[in-house]
Give the backbone structure.
Amino acid sequence: MKSSGWGRIINVASVHGLVASAEKSAYVAAKHGIIGFTKSIALETARSGVTVNAVCPGWVLTPLVQTQVDARAERDKLSQADAKQSLLGEKQPSWSS
């Protein structure tokens, strides 16, 4: 890419690359690593015409996240909708069901 004078690198991280969550240390560390890697490569290629960016998608309702929603609903005596809002709203305030 550098030799051609242009290029695009897009890394996929996560909202957890920007903010942390308890009990997810390995995942959060990996995603923060992707963000740091992206920043370093962006600096290294800054004058080459190659751009480097990271996409940080938010929550996706997977079985793992559903387990967390269920646990929150039971622990706090919340409806499923309120438990989702409570859990997902902590890190992604714009989230709504």
User: Anything to note?
Assistant: DSSP finds three helices and two strands in the chain.
